[in-house]
Amino acid sequence: RQKAIVVRGAGVGRRSVCHAMSAAEALAPAKQAIKQQAFYMKKALDQRHLRTALHHAATMIGELRTSALGPKAYYEVYIDVTTELRHLEEFFEAEHERGRPMVELYELVQHAGNVLPRLYLLLAVGRVFLQSKEAAAKVVLEDLVEHCKGVQQPLRGLFLRNYLLQCTRERLPDTGSDYEGEGGTVSDAIKIVLANFGEMAKLWVRMQHQGPAANKEQREKERAELKVVVGGNLHRLASLEGVTLQVYTAEVVQPLLELIVSCKDGLAQEYLLECVCQVFPVAYHTATLPTLLRFLSWLSAAADESAILSHLISRLCALEPADGETEARDVFTPVADHVERRCASLRLRPSLALALALARLALEAYEAHTEYLERALSLASTRLESLGVVTEKR
């Protein structure tokens, strides 16, 4: 007998029992309930009945407590909810302009009954609380990041933390921002983004352990759909004005790579490292290359290190000479040394792909160093010979 699912429609407190439904069947009533509750919320806000508005907002957010939707459908519900929450954020901004202390509202919204709606409301008012500067930005941000640990269901937790990133994106104590100084420093901003990233990575990895083993393939597909959500933290980290080469070397690269390696999950490590290679400038990778290559040696066996290396080498092809120098810094040698050590454990196709990537690096960044190109071609030839493939010596 099929297990019955209780579907809680936030709209007017409806509760119906039905058999397992498709995501499409669950999506329509959820979107309708959001629309209905948003109407009542906005009506209450127009009348300045805040407690009534918060009740309808919490009920609306309750649609995000569902377990009946996959990532794509859940994203639709999330967008609908957060779009409507913008009206509540605007009300909080107006209250701040009228002189109402934001700390009062920050405490008020924490009386919502369920954890998930309470935290979304906390983030919505937290956005304006940061803007008000009634408390140091780093203190408020740390509190918000810590509160979000209250949701450990992977899909819900990921989107909650994405909303956290959205609400705080322009309110971090970055170098040159309005929140620097008493609000904190770029070091505090880095720690906050890394903390959120670490928690999101854990939630993302945990998705593979949810549900029966028979659905593992479907879960992996859903995880792949959510990778951009997790990678958003890396984009925000790279966009911080205060993350200079010196700061990246001293405060970012080591803890960031530690978080990625600690995932112990091949899919996560592969995507996140490729994302790191992409979002940070090439100069940052050349300056920290020994550290990056060292961490590649500690990846999970399920991670495709050859794909990560190929992506890194491709990025290094854009390397240009520093000001006042005639040629680019030598990164070919350490990368080639690492590739040669790893090729023995790789199959033929990835080995040759890496040799080809090295050849491209030699041609594009070190055209005058023909010995680099010869080394790349020699690597391919040696690998073919080791597998019994005859090559013509010239």
The Cα radius of gyration reads 25 Å
Give the strand order of the largest sheet, numbering strands 1, 2, ... along the chain.
1-2
Terminal-residue CA separation: 72 Å
The shape is: globular
Q: Which blocks of ≥5 consecutive residues have pLDDT under 50?
A: 1-20
Structural class: mainly alpha
Oligomer: single chain
Q: How many β-strand stretches?
A: 2
Strand content of the residues, in percent? under 5%
The major beta sheet can be summarized as:
2 strands, antiparallel
Notes on the structure:
By secondary structure, the protein is mostly helical. It has helices at 23-46, 50-61, 71-97, 102-108, 115-132, 137-147, 154-168, 186-206, 216-225, 227-239, 245-262, 266-279, 282-287, 289-296, 305-316, 332-343, 348-365, 370-386, and strands at 5-9, 14-18. Strands 1-2 form a two-stranded antiparallel ribbon. Strand 1 and strand 2 form a beta hairpin. The longest helix has 27 residues, at 71-97. The N and C termini lie far apart (72 Å). The model is unreliable at 1-20 (pLDDT under 50).
